[in-house]
Amino acid sequence: MVTGEQQTGSVWRVPAIRALVAATALGFTSFAVTLSALPVLAVAGGASISATGLVTTVFLVVTVATQAAVPRLVARRGLGPVLAGGLLALGAPAPLYLLHDSLPWLCGVSAVRGAGFGVLTVLGSTIAARAVPPARRGEALGVYGLALGLPTLAATPGGAALALAGHDTVVAVLATAPVLGLLVVPALVRAVPTEVTAASGTPSGPAARAAAGPSAVLFVVTLASAGLVTFLPIARPDGAVATLALLAFGVVAALCRWGGGVLVDRVGARVLLVPALLAGVAGLVLLALGLDSDVLVVLGAAVFGVGYGGTQNTTIVVAMARAGDGGTTTASAVWNASFDAGTGLGALVVGVLAAAFGLGWSYAVLAAAVALVVPLAVRVTRR
User: By CB atoms within 10 Å of each CB, which of 117, 178, 247, 328 scores lowest?
Assistant: First the structure.
């Protein structure tokens, strides 16, 4: 039942949204704190620097594989058990990192946690979309994006700092945080209509195809963001320029994902998606031209953050609208898989480009790639 508060009040006042914010913050804190800490632990365990990225790769590969299976799992087992299982899989194995620091062990534990993360990302988007009326969907997804973005800003550098200082136990304890999310699972289950949950596992081909276009747009932008986050510190290792640029990128992206959600409900995705992509192009061009300039590096990262955050929220709203209510979970799975695949492949692709042409030209190529998906963005927002 849709309440008057859901129709007109702030989505922050909807109980299910508050519960989702709590579960999301716990889950993404766990993800982010280990994302930066595990490579440090792997090196301490004797892994080569070139091999440390394997921990993250394994985590994201399992995440993407799990995301594809979530709609069918929900249809068979129900949203509550699947969500609870995901939170447990993400948080409960974290103390096992303390038993051994060899690369195979760290990868094995990360594989289990990656499955839990895949569940949380798909169902988080689904619940955000279904906890409010369709006219408020963009704002709810924006709040969800803020709930995952802000903890990541603090936990990513915090995890690296803790690991470098030898506080492995603190990292493991923080990574168990999703287990606390079990307390809010009942409220989240009540937010999703039973008929939508039941429809999650029905033949998902039409819904997946409907979500593929906007998800492809997201994939390209996310791939570019991975190149920015991975290689900017390498290009500018001196001083605090790269740190400041990445902080500006993260803050602006989180705020624009939230603000974009509010705007998309009012003016529509067609008005917002293309400008967001053009902002992403402009930011990458500034980076390509100004890697030697402190001002242009920070400005370029911030401008790209506008495009990155705006594209995230707008594309998921479009994907769910095209898939229909019965395809919400499938659309979320396709969108999240595109996001994580772009993140996982971005560093590899940009690394190859940088080795061949230099980082400046690599950012120029990424700017061209984002520009090339503008016609697709126009097409997928026509209805």
Answer: 247
